[in-house]
Write a structure and sequence with these properties.
By secondary structure, the protein is α/β, with parallel strands linked by helices. It has nine helices and eight strands. The strands form two sheets. The chain has a five-stranded parallel β-sheet with strand order 2-6-1-7-8. The two termini are 24 Å apart.
């Protein structure tokens, strides 16, 4: 990890919009992007495909250490394609089933340790914008700007519901709310790197805001640090 390379962390629970916001901010700055949640989702899918139970901490660690994942940047400016063992899994890892499994894997201390160095390796010039749950508290505690996005479970479930419906995937809205609350509880109460804002993080409630408004709010904080758009 190169401490001279600046980092901006954007943390928050699932459905707060941090993934889209992180991508836009990274593109605006011309910086590298790390979606840490993708690593846990890819690990969960790998476990599923290799017959490793999500509660098998030792088995997951072995998979994490040998994780064959690639991020392929697209010319259109869309989020990168994700390849697992040379097979595209960009949409596959976004299912609720994989998301819940990823949350369970992320609660295991040894798994988080196994993925720590892989995440920090993304810190390369000219800078890094990260998306996760413990980016500002554990992975990059020296980040120059730390953002923590919040939103109610109902609002987050509604966003997810609309996203899935747009893809032709029909889900139960009430069930989505319950799943998000369960995931929040698990993420907040885990013994290692629980979901919480860093003491110096800037909290932004995204319930009443559009993505454009959230990005504008974050860019104000970035510009305060003397960082300009390329």
């Amino acid at each position: 990890m190169n401490p001279k390379v600046p980092v901006i962390t954007i943390d928050g629970a699932s459905g707060t919009g941090k993934g889209v916001v992180t991508h836009i901010i990274a593109k605006k700055l011309g910086w590298n992007l790390l979606d840490s949640g993708v690593l846990y989702r890819v690990l969960a899918l790998t476990a599923q495909r290799h017959g490793v139970f999500i509660e098998d901490e030792a088995g997951l660690v072995l998979l994490a250490e040998q994780l064959d994942v690639q991020f392929i940047t697209t010319e259109t400016g869309e989020p990168p394609l994700i390849l697992l063992e040379n097979q595209e899994v960009t949409d596959t890892i976004r299912t609720e089933k994989i998301g819940n499994a990823a949350s369970k894997a992320g609660a295991l201390p040894a798994v988080r340790t196994a993925l720590l160095s892989r995440q920090r390796a993304f810190r390369t010039p000219p800078g890094l914008v990260t998306d996760g749950r413990d980016m500002g508290t554990v992975i990059f505690p020296d980040a120059i700007v730390k953002i923590f996005l919040t939103a109610s479970p109902e609002e987050r479930a509604s966003r997810r519901y609309n996203q899935l419906n747009a893809k032709g995937i029909h889900v139960n809205l009430s069930a989505l709310v319950d799943e998000l609350r369960e995931r929040d509880k698990r993420d907040q109460e885990r013994s290692v790197a629980p979901l919480k804002p860093a003491v110096d993080a800037i909290l932004i409630d995204t319930d009443p805001l559009t993505i454009k408004q959230v990005v504008a709010r974050i860019m104000i904080e970035i510009e305060k640090k003397g960082i300009t758009i390329e």
